[in-house]
Write a structure and sequence with these properties.
The structure holds 2 protein chains of 2 kinds. Helices cover 46% and strands 20% of the residues of chain A. Chain A is an alpha/beta fold. By secondary structure, chain B is mostly helical. Helix content of chain B is 72%, strand content 0%. Chain B is built from 20 helices and no strands. In chain B, α12 packs parallel to α14 and α18 crosses α20. The radius of gyration of chain B is 35 Å and the shape is flat. Classes of the chains: A alpha/beta, B mainly alpha.
């Protein structure tokens, strides 16, 4: 039986998502990558992950909508970390008010992200 | 053959106008067909290019990540690094490949910090990618030069300083802007030295971009700015005044006061704003003594400054302006007078008739 913890990663920068997938899989997690918010919602509904990593700005469905969907429609308590770019402070505040657990401002260190994930999944 | 003859006879028998319509119809139909074929070919070639781009992108992403996450011993890592750089060097002669490699490196570099960012930087510097950017600096096309500078800025290539600095007065504004951003992004306040040799105008947008770049620097020690305040380039003076305000340059107050004699009204106005921000008491006597010689806009600005630094000794000057035709000056003067000397202000209330419009007076009295 696969007892790896599942992480859904929603990020439209393919290189970054590939890097994070590499990094987190090496740490022992199962990573499901979505290139937009719509795909992320599908993956979340299908796999019920232990953690969600989502960028704020994404095509079709934004990170904020993903958080709102998880908290208000699916009624899940899954921990969510949001990625934000410089100048998106207001978006980050909105993300927290919608139920995000933590945030990381880009550019960020993958090692720091791993530490935060471990702490949230304790 | 029979049909052809029938059509030919039919056309020949037609009046000239109808013949012309037929010819035009056939011609336009042909044009439409040619365009449809052209669009189909174009779309198919674009799709092929896109697919190829995607394929190469995935290839370089995988190569890059397997290099970044290789955990083998040092020698093996060094070999792997060389191998990766050799692959890059072999493929970057093709513009298409080089563009994708640069995009892949930047996509990661812009979003990641720490060791991985340094590794990406290292790959760029160790490969021949840098040489292509240097070559672009010598291009005859301004956009190639601008692209080359931008790339060297993004990969923080400090060694390109001497080759980029000489382009500061390049005829194209876009190139100048990239040079300025290179200098400030990499050399921070030291990079601002280009202001001493800048001949062209620093646009409002350029100034905003430079200030934004400077705002994010850790070291906020700004160098000496006196030379730039006295520059012959008015846009440099305007930008330096913004720096003086942003970084509270009290040590430049004397130069700022001298700038009140500048022939450019926009500069004089900006100086007053800076002096107001710095709350310079010394500036007060200079500005009030020549008050009448300034434009109305400057006079309003002077009163705004005075509101921050007025003293009882300013009563005479303030009282002289309570009947000003300018609403802002009158309001400011009355407010200050009420604050300095309540008796004088009360006398004004008794003699309201002396005012063309006593509404301002009533407003100040009640607030």
């Amino acid at each position: 039986m696969n007892d790896k913890k599942k992480i859904v990663l929603a990020e439209d920068n393919s290189t970054l998502s590939l890097l994070l997938k590499f990094k987190l899989e090496k740490e022992g997690y199962e990573v499901l990558v979505a290139e937009d918010g719509k795909k992320a919602i599908e993956l979340i509904e299908e796999h019920n992950p232990n953690l969600i990593l989502t960028d704020i700005m994404m095509p079709f469905v934004s990170g904020l909508e993903v958080i709102s969907h998880v908290r208000n429609k699916l009624k899940l308590e899954t921990k969510i970390i949001v990625f934000s770019a410089a100048g998106q402070e207001e978006m980050v505040l909105k993300a927290f008010s919608l139920g995000a657990s933590d945030f990381m401002a880009k550019p960020f260190s993958p090692n720091e992200l791993t530490i935060r994930i471990k702490r949230l999944l304790l | 053959m029979e049909t052809y003859k029938i059509v030919q006879n039919y056309l020949q028998e037609l009046p000239f106008e109808l013949q012309l319509v037929w010819i035009l119809s056939v011609f336009l139909s042909l044009v439409v067909v040619i365009f449809v074929i052209y669009l189909k070919v174009l779309r198919s070639s674009l799709r092929k290019k896109e697919a190829l781009q995607e394929e190469y992108k995935k290839r370089y992403e995988t190569l890059l990540l397997s290099f970044l996450f290789d955990e083998s011993n040092d020698d093996k890592l060094r070999n792997q690094e060389n191998e990766f750089i050799n692959i890059i060097n072999a493929e970057i002669n093709d513009n298409f490949n080089r563009k994708i490699i640069i995009e892949t490196l930047l996509k990661l570099k812009n979003e990641i910090s720490g060791e991985i960012e340094k590794d990406i930087q290292h790959i760029y510097l160790q490969s021949n990618l840098k040489s292509f950017a240097y070559q672009q600096l010598k291009s005859k096309n301004w956009y190639e030069i601008a692209k080359g500078i931008k790339e060297l800025t993004q990969f923080k290539v400090e060694e390109a300083y001497s080759q980029i600095k000489i382009l500061i007065n390049y005829p194209k504004k876009e190139v100048q802007k990239e040079v300025q951003l290179y200098l400030v992004s990499l050399f921070h306040f030291e990079g601002l030295k280009f202001l001493s040799s800048l001949k062209s105008d620093l646009s409002e947008w350029d100034q905003i971009e430079l200030l934004e770049e400077l705002k994010h620097l850790e070291n906020q020690e700004i160098p000496e700015i006196t030379d730039w305040l006295t520059s012959k380039n008015d846009s440099v003076v305007m930008f330096t005044l913004k720096l003086a305000k942003m970084y509270n340059k009290y040590e430049n107050v004397d130069t700022l006061i001298q700038l009140m004699n500048h022939e450019n009204q926009k500069i004089r106005l900006q100086v007053i704003l800076v002096l107001t921000h710095l709350q310079v008491l010394d500036a007060k006597s200079v500005l009030t003594s020549k008050f009448k010689s300034y434009t109305e806009e400057e006079q309003v600005a002077i009163f705004k400054l005075l509101e921050n630094v007025f003293e009882p000794s300013d009563e005479k000057f303030i009282a002289e302006n309570i009947h000003s035709n300018n609403f802002e000056i009158q309001l400011s003067a009355l407010k200050m007078l009420k604050s300095i000397n309540k008796n004088t202000f009360s006398k004004l209330l008794i003699n309201k008739m002396a005012f063309k419009n006593s509404t301002v007076l009533n407003f100040v009295q009640n607030n």
